[in-house]
Specification:
Elements lengths: L6 H13 L6 H14 L3 E5 L2 H11 L7 E5 L5 H7 L4 E5 L9 H5 L6 E7 L8 H8 L6 E4 L7 E2 L2 E2 L6 E5 L12 E5 L2 H10 L8 H6 L19 H12 L1 H18 L12 E2 L5 E4 L7 H10 L5 E2 L19 H9 E4 L7 H15 L8
GO biological process, one term: polysaccharide biosynthetic process
Protein name: DegT/DnrJ/EryC1/StrS family aminotransferase
Family: Belongs to the DegT/DnrJ/EryC1 family.
Length: 372
């Protein structure tokens, strides 16, 4: 992945620096409003990362010790960590062939202590959130959407995040839309929005930006124990430019993905689910039965000048979650052990894509691959 950054972003960042206001301020407010509109939400709360957005979402639901939150193990470890930050217990559920939780896999792990379900739109592939809501809402279980990778993806004809109770987004450089680091929490709930904005800024009753621009002396109060999860105006300035390019970026990635499908006809790859479209934030492929070991495949690709990486991690297999209780996770383990992610970036050339595809086909055929 290479972020699509250029002179427009550099100029926007420089303008923010020259303005003298570089902390959270007017550009953050503009970015929040524009991003929320783009994903079909009423409100946006810009924060320092998607991880902090997820933490705020769980915190806003007053979830804590003794509570359980269902999450996929097949996800970057921040998904489970955000639950742990509150003292609650993440409970791992399995995924289907799209890499996402389903109502069936979630229902197997629900208990009397389940307080929320955190569904991930994995690598930009939209999860079927309507079926999850149909399972959870009658039980009084809220559904949080981890949309870290999903800016520009669609679900049932609308942007992913539209209608979400709360959705968390990432602007890390591996995402389509980047601010370097940064994230966003979106919601339609005005009360959660007010509280989330307070929580991200130490619990202050009046934000620093409002205090300095108010024109009169204001003494703030600190209303609750909170956090420092702010985004800077420099980041937001870059984000506003990036947001204007999102449709272009998604269209280009989908064009490249379609070409990969043509170049790799015998390989099972990520594709659109029946209920939506993916932004192809990552292009994963399944290693077929009988293929060389994945480590050998990655080494063979590297020897041919292709930088690929392992598939999506499984949190329950990492040392941080050693011994953590979970049910059977067969699809999760197959996903993390038998997939890898191929290069995909906006300015990728036909020749580069052909190099990737031909290299993978050679390695899968065993050409020049030797096991240790």
């Amino acid at each position: 992945m290479r972020p699509l950054l250029g002179e427009e972003e550099a100029s926007a960042a420089a303008e923010a620096v020259r303005s003298g206001w570089v902390a959270q301020g007017p550009r953050v407010a503009s970015f929040e409003e524009a991003f929320a509109v783009r994903v079909g939400a009423s409100h946006g709360v810009a924060v320092s990362s998607c991880t902090t957005a997820l933490h705020l979402a769980v915190h806003l639901l007053d979830i804590g010790p003794g509570d359980e939150v269902v999450v996929p193990s097949l996800s970057f470890i921040a998904t489970a960590n955000a639950v742990r930050y509150t003292g609650a217990t993440p409970v791992f559920a399995d995924v289907d062939a799209t890499g996402n939780l389903t109502a069936a896999t979630v229902e197997r792990v629900l208990t009397a202590r389940t307080r929320a379900v955190m569904v991930v739109h994995q690598a930009g592939v939209p999860a079927d959130v309507a079926e999850l809501r149909a399972l959870c809402e009658p039980r009084g279980i809220p559904v949080i959407e981890d949309a870290a990778c999903a800016a520009g993806s669609t679900y049932r004809g609308a942007p992913v995040g539209s209608g979400a109770l709360m959705a968390a987004w990432s602007f890390h450089p591996r995402k389509l839309l980047t601010t370097g680091e940064g994230g966003m929490l979106t919601t339609d709930d005005p009360e959660w929005t007010v509280r989330a904005k307070r929580l991200r800024e130490h619990g202050m009753s009046v934000s620093a930006a409002d205090r300095h621009s108010g024109g009169s002396a204001v003494v703030e109060q600190y209303l609750e124990t909170a956090f420092n999860y702010r985004m800077t105006d420099i980041q937001a300035a870059v984000g506003l430019v990036q947001l204007s390019k999102l449709d272009l970026i998604v269209a280009r990635r989908r064009e490249l993905a379609a070409r990969y499908h043509e170049l790799l006809p015998d390989v099972t790859t990520v594709r659109d689910p029946a209920h939506g479209t993916t932004n192809y934030q990552s292009f994963w492929v399944w290693l077929p039965e009988g293929a060389p070991d994945r480590t050998d495949v990655l080494a063979g690709l590297a020897a041919r000048g292709v930088s690929a990486r392992r598939g999506i991690m499984a949190s329950h297999l990492e040392p941080a979650y050693a011994g953590h209780p979970h049910g059977p996770l067969p699809m999760t383990e197959a996903f993390t052990q038998r997939t890898l992610i191929l290069p995909l970036f906006h300015d990728m050339t036909n020749a580069e894509q052909e190099q990737v595809a031909s290299s993978l086909n050679e390695v899968l055929a065993g050409v020049g691959v030797t096991s240790p």
